[in-house]
Automatic annotation (TrEMBL):
Zn(2+) binds at residues 160, 163, 436, 439. It comes from Biomphalaria pfeifferi (Bloodfluke planorb). Belongs to the ubiquitin-activating E1 family. This is SUMO-activating enzyme subunit. The lineage of its organism: Eukaryota, Metazoa, Spiralia, Lophotrochozoa, Mollusca. Gene3D superfamilies: Ubiquitin activating enzymes (Uba3). Chain: B, domain 2 (1.10.10.520), Ubiquitin-activating enzyme E1, inactive adenylation domain, subdomain 1 (3.50.50.80), Ubiquitin-like 2 activating enzyme e1b. Chain: B, domain 3 (3.10.290.20). The keyword Metal-binding applies. It is found in: Nucleus.
Amino acid sequence: MAATLNGVLENNLAESIIKSRLLMVGAGGIGCELLKNLVLSGFNNIEVIDLDTIDVSNLNRQFLFRKEHVGKSKAQVAKESALKFKADANIVAHHESIFSPEFGLDFFKQFTLVLNALDNRAARNHVNRMCLAADIPLVESGTAGYLGQVTVIKKKLTECYECQPKPTQKTFPGCTIRNTPSEPVHCVVWAKHLFNQLFGEDDPDQDVSPDTEDPELAAEAGQAALSNEAKRDTIGGIERKSTRSWAMETGYDAEKLFNKLFRDDIKYLLSMENLWKKRRAPQPLDFQELPGKGEAMCTGVMRDQRVWSVQECADIFAQSLAALKQDLYSKGDGGTLVWDKDDHNGMDFVCSVANIRAHIFGITLKSKFDIKSIAGNIIPAIATTNAIIAGLIVMETLKILSGNISKCKQVYLNRIPNDRKRLLLPCALDPPNPKCYVCSEKHECTVMLNTQKVTVRVLQDKILKGHLNMIAPDVEIDDGKGTIILSSEEGETEENYDKVLSVFAVGQSSRLKCDDFLQNYSLTINIVHVEKLEEEKEFEVVGDISQFHPTETTTESPVEGHTNGASKSKATEEEDDLLIVEDQVTPDLVSTGRKRPAEDQQDALLIKRKKQESNTGDNEDVIEIS
């Protein structure tokens, strides 16, 4: 192989390829193409990490997998298939999560560089931090339909993955989801919440039913609650029973669950008269009196491609409910299920439930294929896009190994050629953002919250883990005493979880020192106490204290696109340089000639527009369409 490489590549680069050790994270759409490219390019030492298993839906674009591999580890099967291209390659497969403690700093330091082929933001954030800590180059990539991108990340030389803010996943007000849905996506979100209420981890914020004992509602329903005697040892004298507790008491009886969710709860909503003065009122359904009962099913169209009748939805609801019940019971006491778009029963459940609710509220019903796209925030994957991006990853890898990292580019793949007939648009890599709380010299950010309402649990789950992407945070108050309010060691600070921050004297201008030993990452949080935030948010995070400019009339701050009056002009200027790829990309967006960022399926990427390089040195990265 060395002789073959020497005939094509410079001697030094050929030797670097043979001696290098690569870590590839992800063995899906991009990962399959990339692993094949790597072994055919002469790379001998490769480790692959992927926790996922192979699903039938993967087979149309992940060409290292075959039908007989369904249900097996992606990493292991990818390794076995790649060895058929180069039998003497040393490939190590890990069927594990990249977040596992075994993949710590020492593990990352043994590699020459890391190649990401991921499909979610949390994993990308984690690998980004590990590569920064280990000071090794990272080649990041993503695809979204016909769009794609590749970039290189190197500590102190380029922007890291978190230098620019990413758009948060779109959410909807709880009252819209529970009471007044008006779009298919509202019904799909409600169905996923119901899945978690019945089978997953309980989250009070995802309650799906109107509270039948809440006196703060109108007409007969609220009056019935008020007429009940207050109960002791409950919140506000009102006893609330979880959806799962009730379902388990019924033995997950399909008819009882159906009639509660789609008849009784809807009748309860109808008693809230003010909701329906300017809206179409929902129509309750009874399990035994459904439209379409007795009608023959359409058999000329594939099951997942056609829209099911209401009766068919009810039947599939009952079947999937029974199957999911067995899956849950097999987990033992305290077990939970995690919804997965590729799980047949889970997807059938969400599709049937979403369509039944849509029918009740007069919303257009969707096929299972469409609902799967909505529920998984899926942009259909294109095999050729993955192949192009995998090739670009190898090209950037070769530049790094040849000692020319300064010549690396951020490359965007567009859906159609621009005015210069280019599909691939190379751009210069941006330098690090000096205010990035991940890769700058000063790891610091500001969090605005009400210290008298936000608990240590919210700090841990929603701020540190959810927003700041930590894995195992420890938190110490910078008060000169070393007061620890949160420890990653199990059981050490659990008694603090439900205490508000003010109990620990955390208030305006307090500083919290946060460490994550798994990521070898530390961050200082400056606390800004506010009584109330816009849109009833629990908290807002900004890069540093200088970005917070409170005024007498507002508590807003320029956080991820939100600005106060003082900085409105600057924000307006920058808006033209921001692009978001979400669920669908239209041709007119791409044909403008602007660089189009993309992420793999579930993760939209927000980046600054790049100025296209025009020197002739870029032509090697450009496809000309004649």
